[in-house]
Amino acid sequence: MTETEPTPPSHPFEVTLSPGKTYFWCVCGRSAKQPFCDGGHKGTGLAPRKVTVEAEDTVFLCGCKQTATPPYCDGTHTTLS
């Protein structure tokens, strides 16, 4: 794995997101505050994804970092070894 590839924890994270708040979803897998960014991506060439919602919602954010619908889990983690 190269420095610019994510190192995912793999499982999805169930979180409640609130409107009017900005979240940054970790794309590198290095954050100690999964699924949110803590700056662990610095030096990797990866950047977190900004997430906002219109209404309060409980969602599953991707942990494997391979989803086709970032930042939301699409079940891809079930196909990874």
TrEMBL record:
Q: Which regions span the lipid bilayer?
A: none
Ranges where the Iron-binding zinc finger CDGSH type domain occurs: 10-47, 48-81
InterPro entries per the UniProt record, alphabetical:
CISD, FeS-contain_CDGSH-typ, MitoNEET_CISD
Q: Which UniProt keywords apply?
A: 2Fe-2S, Iron, Iron-sulfur, Metal-binding
**May I ask which residue range the UniProt record assigns to the signal sequence?**
none
Which is a Gene Ontology cellular component entry for this protein?
A: cytoplasm
Q: Name one Pfam family in it.
A: zf-CDGSH
Q: Which GO terms describe its molecular function?
A: 2 iron, 2 sulfur cluster binding; metal ion binding
Protein name in the entry = CDGSH iron-sulfur domain-containing protein
**Species whose genome carries this gene:** Roseospira navarrensis
